[in-house]
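Tokens for chain A. Residues wanted.
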């Protein structure tokens, strides 16, 4: 994949991860309090390299739980699905 392709995939994944975190709101700082859409953008950016390194859903779940220890299965599933879907 070219550098432009990698950059484009990164941006799409970052937007998707940020939106999922906002919508499912594991820390109560997003949708549940009607916060700005970018409330989870820093957390999503920190999570991206961990997800990129994960080779399995189990590894990804462990990495997500490092950032969000109380993450529900719904969040783990949504993040993994988005990660796999967006190339």
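Reply:
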């Amino acid at each position: 994949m070219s550098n432009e392709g990698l950059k484009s995939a990164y941006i799409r994944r970052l937007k998707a991860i940020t939106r999922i975190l906002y919508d499912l709101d594991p820390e109560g700082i997003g949708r549940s309090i009607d916060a700005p859409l970018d409330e989870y953008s820093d957390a999503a950016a920190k999570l991206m390299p961990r997800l990129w390194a994960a080779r399995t859903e189990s590894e990804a779940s462990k990495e997500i739980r490092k950032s969000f220890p109380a993450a529900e299965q719904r969040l783990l599933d949504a993040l993994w699905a988005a990660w796999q879907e967006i190339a």
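The chain has a mean pLDDT of 93. Helices lie at 3-24, 41-53, 57-67, 73-85.
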